């Protein structure tokens, strides 16, 4: 069975000192590097948040405060601080992440009008990123998923992987949650388990 590792959004803005730092984010990088070193993956894919500066998910572009919610093109949208703006240091992958074996990069969140948490598609399910096509082209049947953040981009990438027919495993030690609310990470795990995601370690 051919397997791929999907590494979600290990970018400077989500790591220590970043604009949207996830608590404990830097702790997962050595674990992810070890996975790549100790396992034989047919493909290793990075997803990368890559927002235009006028992205509608940014509180600053809506006259809102971070943490508020609006309806954006028919779906609820959490208001985030400006983060992972295309071409900036914050959007770059963290320097400690070993990219020697990476075979593919998927950029997401490029459409100003709609956010994209999942590595597979935007939040409106209008536009695919090409990740599913890439994995199917390479006959991938099993995906292992790590990265940031557990309760947003990792969760939705896992759920879409299951929906697209992949055996889907989440490495618990390879992810951390934003936890806007204290139980968000725990709730995300519960939801993924219900939908058929296997949680490892």
- By DSSP (H or I, 4+ residues per run), the number of helices equals 4
Dominant shape: globular
Number of strands: 8
Bin the strand percentage.
Answer: 15-25%
Poorly predicted residue ranges: none
Q: What tags apply to this protein structure?
A:
Isochorismatase_Nicotinamidase, nicotinamidase, EC 3.5.1.19, 201 residues, Isochorismatase-like_sf, 4 helices, alpha/beta, nicotinamidase activity
Report on this model:
This protein has 201 residues and is α/β, with parallel strands linked by helices. It is built from 4 helices and 8 strands, in the order βαββββαβαβαβ. The strands form 2 sheets. It has a 6-stranded parallel beta sheet. Strands 3-4 form a two-stranded antiparallel sheet. The radius of gyration is 16 Å and the shape is globular.
Secondary-structure map with pairings?
Layout: E1 3-8, H1 28-38, E2 43-49, E3 69-72, E4 75-78, E5 104-108, H2 131-137, E6 142-148, H3 150-163, E7 167-176, H4 184-194, E8 198-200
Parallel strand pairs: 1-2, 1-6, 2-5, 6-7, 7-8
Antiparallel strand pairs: 3-4
Helix pairs in contact: 3-4
